[in-house]
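Exercise 7. Predict the joint structure of the components listed below.
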Amino acid sequence: MKKKFKLTDLDCASCAAKMEAAIQKIDGVHSATVSFLTQKLTLEADDTRFDDIVEEAVRVCRKIEPGCVIQR
Amino acid sequence: MTQKQKRTLGRIFLSAALLAAARLLPTLWLPGALPLVSVSHAAQDGSAAFSLAPWALYLVPYLLIGWDVLWKAVRNIAHGQIFDENFLMALATVGAFGTGEYAEAVFVMLFYQVGELFQGYAVGKSRQSITALMDIRPDCANVERDGALLQVDPDEVEVGDTIVIKAGERVPLDGVILEGRSTLDTAALTGESLPREAEAGDDVISGCINLSGLLKVRVTKSFEESTVAKILDLVENAAGKKAKAENFITKFARYYTPSVVAAAVLLAVLPPLLGDGDWSKWFHQALVFLVISCPCALVISVPLSFFGGIGGASRAGILVKGGNYLEVLADTQIVVFDKTGTLTKGVFNVTAIHPDQCDEDRLLELAALAESYSDHPISRSLKEACGKEIDNSRVDGVEEIAGQGVKASVDGVEVWVGNDKLMDAAGAAWHPCHRVGTTVHVASQGVYLGHIVISDEVKEDAAQAIAGLKTIGIQKTVMLTGDAQAVGEDVARRLGLDEVHTQLLPADKVDQVEALLRERTGKGKLAFVGDGINDAPVLSRADLGIAMGGLGSDAAIEAADVVLMDDKPSKIAVAIRIARKTLSIVRQNIVFALGVKLLVLVLGAVGRANMWGAVFADVGVSVLAILNAMRALRAGQGAE
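Solution:
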């Protein structure tokens, strides 16, 4: 399943790159891009565990850039 | 400016004022000793006097401007994020404070915040101006259901529904006009500023703006299949396809910060251990390193340049599907064109009917009937010229022979309609025509009946397109066509193409492109431009596929890397120019940002750079690089 999420208050480009790398490492993620310019996260992951993976992504992002919120 | 940015601005002003006050204020005498914050002086009469320690004065503006940075640094360390810019700035300024450089510490933090603010503002603005270009998503559609007009989401409209578009509204879905006449503003899609006339029977593309009249439109495509949704999808995904330069920067950034920080540690520790100077001097110099160690200028400005280039191109009606394709475009050396629909309008008109065995009407009718199931431009023009309603039931057993024509049975009689090769296959004694154009031969049961000549008009800007490519230094322009030799060569000569290959089957086109691919030299790339009818394999075989978006088939737009929305071949030169400009901006930014940082690092190592210079090398360079990146957005302007 592929889904796009809007990110709010993502205001550092290298954080976006770090988030992208961190989300890609989550188990079950096929591909993930965090675009600083469009302020969007595109996530492609296993259907069965998609919600858990999103949960994990939110947690990882909070660790890197606490101000940034993934809108679901 | 956002609320957050406004607050930061206020803090900057206040802190700057306090910093100035702290500098200008005379020594403040205290009535007595205060623990920690007082400095004792020996007064002239020998008694002790106490003044307020300067650091206490500077601490106020420092905390005012820097508390969030300090807080983030602490919080991120708790999260295991050590090398982030907040930590580095906090360490550098706290270090400066510790070594007695109070004013410098406040100033560095102040300048850093100014830079961050400006950077955030500039990025926000650029993002806005780029996304504004892509603001073509329709909000709602007025759909007619059971005689009543309902306002619904474009997603909910089905194919076959009738929608009403009022003046000033955006066309929500692709369709055909049933009633009404209007002018359409297609600028958002094609970059064409001249509005287009539209009336009943015409196709309308979603994303256009209806300027004047009321239009009733029968929907032909669902929202996801409509032009607007496709374009938005393309552009959004474009950001995901990273250019080589972008990947380089991401990789570079991963190593840059830790290495600079390591160098800073070495600089702080090694010389004093070797007995060269005191600890605080080298520590201070190491702090300079920390300030420069953030790779932000590069991490922001390179993708922003590509994004700007893609945005600028889309403003000119050129959709580029990713930053990587801008790189290929910039290196294009050979441009290969398909003829029909690319260099010519793809609108065929019957210009001559030369019957051998029957009368003109009969010849035309047979050809139109045999071709009635085909959607090829030639078939359409035959049907149009015939003028009569085509009765499909008279035709059966249609067999299309790619690159040759069709064989069908009309009223139970076998009819062959196509080119000379097909006539040979049918065993008919054909003869060539003296008129230049596409000759459609007709034979029935082995007997040659005659031929019809159809000509295609060359696009107005085709010659200009080829000349434009020559001007920007494209080495070779080639035309491939399935058409007859005389027709192809005639067009190629008139347009000034370097090479022409005629009478090619779709598979031959791939072979020709393969051969041309071997002619590339160095980094040179080959681009193929087609309108999509039979082109998809060639489009994907070339280094870069360019498709005509308006006329082109969906398959071609999918297979292509660059789509020209207004079908103008002259836009290829514009696209290449935009790509080259974008790439040169990217290179400037990489060289500039790395150059300044390296310079300050070297100066810092030998003790020639202070922290002010370091802050400039960090945020100042970022801001300049962002401003430079924004030029990519305007790269398409004035290029026509």
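Discussion. Chain B touches chain A through 26 residues (CB under 8 Å).
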